[in-house]
């Protein structure tokens, strides 16, 4: 019963308008460098240990970088289609 009270007190004291996101520990350049190291063949476990981040974080960064690159690249045109 005491836990429910503590949870309710937390919810009531939380004000979503005044909360802000925590700044990232890594700059975009650092994220890009880590993903480039992964693509170059550096073992994932090594990157995780050196940078103290999870494998899923690196894969998320790689996914977003691929999406950004796809947005920047013009769509490939097929010469057979007109």
UniProtKB/TrEMBL annotation:
Annotated SUPFAM superfamilies: Homeodomain-like
GO molecular function annotation: DNA binding; transposase activity
BP GO terms, sorted: DNA transposition
Highest taxon listed in the record's lineage: Bacteria
Organism: Solimonas marina
InterPro entries for the chain: Homeodomain-like_sf, Transposase_8
Similarity remark: Belongs to the transposase 8 family.
Protein name according to UniProt: Transposase
Pfam families: HTH_Tnp_1
């Amino acid at each position: 019963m005491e836990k429910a009270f503590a949870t309710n007190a937390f919810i009531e004291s939380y004000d979503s308008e005044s909360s802000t996101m925590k700044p990232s520990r890594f700059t975009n350049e650092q994220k890009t460098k880590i993903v480039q190291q992964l693509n170059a063949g550096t073992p994932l476990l090594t990157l995780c240990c050196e940078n103290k981040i999870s494998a899923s974080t690196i894969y998320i960064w790689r996914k977003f970088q691929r999406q950004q690159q796809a947005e920047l690249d013009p769509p490939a045109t097929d010469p057979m289609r007109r």
